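Tokens as discussed.
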């Protein structure tokens, strides 16, 4: 029945008679081992037609003659009808269900594959494909066809896990061709194609599924998008360091980790003393489990017990993990909650392993634990986890034989032959801890003429670090004492490092030497296992080693040199990455001999991204150690990077530290003006308009006392934006006109264009469309002349809006399309989303509703992780307008109410009035006139208070109505 109706006996096909007879047989088969009355048979097969009872009896007799010699199959006459008796294994539908159920009960993956292959192999086509279903029961027939895709999907997933991607690929292709919108099977087929190296084929599958989903007004889910990104960009993400060489032992612990992965557990928590090998175990396990987690293996260092370094915040850890997962920095949300949501969404449907190293507490890691099935977190910490943070593994020192095995693996075996007793004493002196054993082995390996007795004697002479040598620190002390003085000095300096790591150039600044010498010193420390190489030419120190190194505090001049390096190099990187900001960067008299040059914007951005954690740590260190000039200058220099990548927590956090330091010096107008200006911008971006206005107002007199027209102009713009959003348009225009004069005075073309564009926006609001058109066109021209691509995108969006309001729809569409191209070129997702949304508005006004909806949906997708309240409000308003225009009134009401909620939250009065108008128009269309009247009044009042021409439009619109909406 799983295909054309066929019967076989002893390998020979059985002829089942004419079509009517086959219908009767199918009805009996569908009710196998249950009686079916003559009347019921007649009703099903000959519905609505008169049939003699003898006709049914004749077909039954012929069917009995056919099955009588088949063994185990027969048609019986019972008091309630005819009963076809047949064994379970003789009917393919029953056998299919039995094989699937048996596969679900076994835990052996190979047996599951065998059973499901047998089950799927029973299908020869569509269920009863040569039978007219209406003649055998019609809608009452339960079609088993939905079970086949499920079984194929289950089988393909098992085959992929077993490494048989070709079988999975071949059985999935027909399913995806027949149902391209089925995301589960598309995902599995993409995985199979990627496993076979066919990234192009995987992208074709993604394109077909995306197109099929678009017809249903749906978007591909995160799993499909992640697979497409993997197909486009190559191997899955992995931030794991290389495997620790010579890893030995820990068999029981590995078995626990492997069992947890196999059982689909969420997390395993590995705890133990410093130097016991927690991180090494986690990284080795992650490498061993790579095949089980093919979608990525990530490492986040949480600095829970790193000396001198604050523990990593949950927000920073989420940002690090999202970047590793391939999320562009500028798309990462501002708040911890939204970061966590994006993190879990990105992991959903993947099989990813996350190592959370050096956790401070369960509270720190709970938001970082993957919720998706198939993902696993391995947490390391000095403290034990809680019951909800995963199965606990408590690491003890290695057993003596495993400790000796590790020492053997890390040294020349020929030097250890017959010396088991001495090796046993050495590893005992190391506390049976992997970290000091590695240090001792590296020291022995480096001195190839040392006998074992010499190493042992040195270990004994150096005695314990504390009251006993439980932490095996004697090996570290011996290794340290064997260093030359320059290496010792570098080692001690690294103990006071403010951040988690240092590159060779930063090491040169710290040590006061040239880069070549620093490279050699760091390499020497790495050679004897006193440093780990986190990335090419970037080093970090394990926590127990850093505690030892910090026993003698690093001299303040060395750390000031490092902060000078960060300050001078950050200024150079910002100047390269954001060339139009150069004139407004704070001046500094600090210098650094090893500051690198940056050839282009990309090089500057890469340096800032690589040093980001060190720069934040440097700001915090400077604030704690009475270095105010470093504190505020570093914070101000970082503002643009944090702004463009939406890292609001650290943006505001570092600037607030900066404010605390500069506020303590009443005479420091220069520092205070810079910090207040950038804090005002941050608060405005977060929709905190009153705070932004107050901060900018405090900054303005300071710039005036300094006689700095550029700073004054930038602050006037920072005042104008929240002033405008709070509805004080005349005051905002005055600020912008004053700013424009200052920019003209300083010949700052970028600033002129920005002020003109904002004035154009306000003139558009007030209906002065010809003036606005000229201002936006002038701004776009200026920005093109100076090559400011991002600014051009902004100006073209604004220009298109005026053209749209003037009815110049083809010109508006061209401007918006150009704006989208420029914004996409520089990765400005905010402007890109506005442009796509605006293109949708033009299509709506031209009556092309499907195209309008498609562009609104694209805008929503691009804006998903842009934390801009005004953008999200505008998108809701325009989606509502398009929904109302095409008759989807409930969708329109939902969108307009969402816009009103956002506008109320941000305090933007123009958006509040527009949202009230949208709700009023939609409620009127729905016939809910009493509820609409309140919103009509609120819209009219809001527009009147802002002196906007839309107030008259609302009055005229209400006056034309003859329902309760017109009541005032």
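Sequence:
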């Amino acid at each position: 029945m799983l295909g054309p109706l066929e019967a076989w006996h002893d390998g020979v096909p059985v002829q089942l008679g004419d079509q009517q007879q086959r219908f009767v047989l199918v009805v009996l088969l569908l009710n196998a081992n249950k009686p079916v009355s003559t009347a019921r048979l007649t009703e099903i097969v000959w519905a609505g037609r008169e049939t003699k009872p003898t006709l049914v009896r004749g077909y039954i007799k012929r069917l009995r003659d056919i099955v009588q010699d088949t063994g185990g199959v027969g048609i019986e006459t019972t008091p309630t009808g005819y009963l076809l008796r047949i064994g379970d294994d003789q009917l393919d539908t029953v056998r299919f269900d039995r094989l699937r159920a048996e596969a679900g009960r076994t835990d052996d993956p190979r047996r599951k594959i065998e059973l499901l292959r047998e089950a799927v192999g029973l299908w020869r086509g569509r269920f009863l494909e040569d039978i007219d279903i209406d003649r055998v029961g019609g809608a009452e027939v339960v079609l088993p066809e939905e079970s086949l895709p499920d079984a194929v999907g289950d089988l393909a997933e098992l085959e992929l896990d077993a490494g048989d991607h070709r079988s999975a690929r071949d059985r999935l292709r027909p399913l995806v061709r027949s149902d391209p919108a089925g995301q589960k099977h598309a995902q599995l087929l993409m995985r199979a194609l990627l496993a076979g190296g066919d990234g192009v084929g995987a992208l074709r599958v993604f394109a077909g599924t995306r197109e099929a989903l678009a017809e249903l007004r749906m978007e591909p889910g995160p799993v499909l998008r992640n697979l497409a990104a993997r197909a486009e960009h190559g191997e899955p993400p992995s931030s794991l360091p290389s495997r620790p060489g010579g890893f030995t032992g820990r068999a029981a612990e590995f078995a626990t980790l492997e069992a947890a992965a196999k059982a689909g557990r969420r997390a395993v928590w590995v705890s133990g003393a410093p130097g016991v090998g927690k991180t090494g175990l986690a990284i080795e396990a992650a490498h061993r489990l790579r095949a089980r987690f093919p979608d990525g293996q990530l490492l986040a260092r949480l600095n829970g017990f790193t000396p001198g370094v604050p523990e990593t915040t949950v927000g920073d850890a989420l940002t690090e993990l999202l970047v590793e997962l391939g999320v562009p920095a500028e798309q990462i949300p501002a708040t911890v909650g939204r970061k966590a949501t994006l993190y879990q969404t990105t992991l959903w449907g993947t099989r990813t392993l996350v190592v959370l190293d050096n956790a401070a507490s369960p509270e720190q890691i709970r938001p970082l634990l993957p919720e998706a099935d198939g993902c696993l977190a391995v947490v390391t910490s000095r403290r034990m986890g809680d019951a909800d943070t995963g199965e606990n593994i408590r690491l003890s020192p290695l057993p003596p034989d495993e400790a000796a095995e590790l020492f053997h693996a890390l040294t020349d075996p020929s030097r250890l032959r017959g010396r088991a007793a001495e090796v046993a004493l050495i590893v005992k002196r190391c506390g049976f801890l992997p970290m000091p054993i590695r240090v001792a082995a590296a020291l022995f390996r480096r001195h190839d003429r040392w006998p074992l007795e010499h190493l042992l004697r040195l270990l004994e002479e150096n005695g314990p670090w504390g009251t006993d040598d439980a932490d095996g620190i004697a090996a570290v002390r011996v290794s340290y004492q064997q260093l030359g003085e320059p290496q010792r000095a570098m080692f001690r300096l690294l103990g006071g490092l403010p951040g988690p790591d240092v590159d060779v150039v930063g090491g040169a600044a710290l040590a006061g030497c040239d880069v070549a010498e620093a490279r050699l010193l760091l390499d020497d420390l790495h050679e004897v296992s006193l440093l780990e190489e986190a990335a090419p030419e970037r080093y970090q120190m394990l926590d127990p080693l850093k505690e030892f190194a910090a026993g003698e505090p690093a001299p303040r001049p060395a750390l000031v040199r490092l902060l000078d390096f960060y300050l001078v190099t950050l200024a150079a990187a910002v100047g390269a990455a954001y060339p139009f900001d150069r004139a407004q960067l704070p001046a500094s008299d600090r210098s650094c001999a090893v500051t690198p040059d940056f050839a282009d914007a990309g090089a500057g951005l890469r340096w800032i991204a690589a040093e980001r954690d060190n720069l934040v740590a440097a700001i915090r260190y400077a604030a704690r150690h009475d270095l105010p000039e470093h504190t505020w200058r570093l914070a101000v220099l970082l503002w643009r990077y944090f702004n463009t990548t939406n890292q609001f927590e650290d943006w505001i956090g570092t600037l607030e530290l900066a404010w605390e330091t500069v506020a303590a010096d009443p005479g420091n107008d220069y520092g205070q003006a810079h910090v207040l200006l950038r804090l005002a911008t941050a608060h405005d971006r977060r929709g905190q308009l009153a705070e932004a206005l107050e901060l900018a107002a405090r900054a303005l007199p300071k710039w005036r006392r300094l006689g700095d027209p550029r700073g004054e102009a930038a602050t006037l713009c920072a005042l104008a934006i929240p002033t405008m959003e709070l509805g004080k348009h005349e005051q905002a225009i005055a600020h912008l006109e004053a700013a424009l004069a200052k920019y003209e005075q300083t010949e700052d073309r970028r600033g002129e264009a920005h002020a003109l564009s904002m004035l154009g926006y306000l003139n558009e609001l007030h209906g002065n469309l010809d003036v606005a058109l000229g201002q936006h066109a002038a701004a776009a021209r200026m920005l093109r002349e100076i090559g400011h691509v991002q600014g051009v995108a902004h100006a073209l969006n604004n220009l298109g809006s005026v053209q749209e309001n003037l009815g110049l729809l083809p010109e508006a569409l061209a401007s918006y399309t150009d704006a989208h191209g420029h914004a996409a070129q520089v990765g400005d997702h905010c402007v890109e989303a506005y442009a796509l949304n605006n293109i949708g508005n033009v299509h709506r006004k031209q009556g092309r509703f499907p195209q309008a909806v498609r562009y609104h949906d694209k805008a929503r997708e691009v804006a998903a992780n842009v934390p801009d309240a005004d953008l999200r409000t505008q998108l809701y308003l325009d989606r509502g307008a398009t929904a109302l225009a095409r008759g989807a009134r409930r969708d329109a009401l939902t969108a307009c109410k969402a816009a009103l909620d956002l506008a109320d939250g941000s305090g933007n009065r123009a958006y509040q009035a527009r949202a009230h108008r949208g709700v009023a128009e939609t409620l009127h269309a729905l016939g809910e006139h009493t509820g609409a009247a309140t919103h009509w009044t609120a819209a009219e009042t809001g527009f009147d208070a802002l002196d906007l021409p839309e107030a008259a439009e609302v009055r005229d619109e209400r006056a034309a109505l003859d329902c309760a909406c017109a009541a005032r």
